[in-house]
Amino acid sequence: MATSREHNQPSFTVVSIATNLPGPTAAKRFCELGAEVIKVEPPSGDPMRLYNEPYYTVLAEGQQILTLDLKSPSGMTELHRLLSGADIFLTSHRTGALTRLGLAWDELHAQHPRLSQVAIVGHGDGEGNIAGHDLTYQAHAGTLTPPQLPTIPVADMAGSERAVSEGMAALWETQITGEGTFREVALADMAEEFGAPAYYGLSNPGSLLGGGLPHYGLYEAADGGWVAIALLEPHFLDKATQLLDISGSKEDYRTVIATKTAAEWERWAREHSLPIAAVREAG
């Protein structure tokens, strides 16, 4: 593992064959942390490029993009050449698919003993062949509110960050032992872990963070925009109710927020150091 940051050289190398969202998001973060990232795409390309090319471009920024057919001997030979100089191998395939390609961990470790693998899978505990996507992981975790689809693919985004932390831990362990390690990140587990606030009743409808408090919610402004009010701490709540001269009911907030635009309320909140913000529209 190279360590010469003084000359702007990468401190470690990541080879990724992970496509779609969690893997490329993790690869982007590795790149930001100083890695040389080599992304290997199949001849058909990364599906993310078809789904949303601007986002694909952002996720791939700063990386070397190669096209290899890993089902061909030449493609696999080139991949192993890359892995021979890499520190981390990032994957997001189902377990069986990697085995069929000859990329099971035992085989990889035998050929590249200092290489660590971070395997992003759908389900852990030996169930890495079960098909799934963020929506199905959240379905099992109980974080959906049908028929509304989730705005944020929580399992995918959480999984990408966990993959990075597992990768950095693997680098540290290799520095100590001289051997690479296998790290698995199950997206279904991430949905459950990051869905814990809903499971414990903190953020589901009508709860503390789910609309049960007048001073923690969304209110419509004069221009039709929306304002997020998050006055959880007593000192914020006391200050806001005094400045607004209200008792603090939901009707009070609805009435007073309707007197200014969302942008005006955000400026007002910043002047008074209060956690109130205009809601930015997605997309």
TrEMBL record:
Question: What Pfam families does its record include?
Answer: CoA_transf_3 (PF02515)
Q: What does the record give under GO molecular function?
A: transferase activity
What's the superkingdom here?
Answer: Bacteria
The record's listing under InterPro entries reads:
CoA-transferase_III (IPR050509), CoA-Trfase_fam_III (IPR003673), CoA-Trfase_III_dom3_sf (IPR044855), CoA-Trfase_III_dom_1_sf (IPR023606)
Would the keyword Chloroplast be found if you checked this record's keyword annotation?
no
Keywords from UniProt, A to Z, are: Transferase
Protein name from the UniProt record: CoA transferase
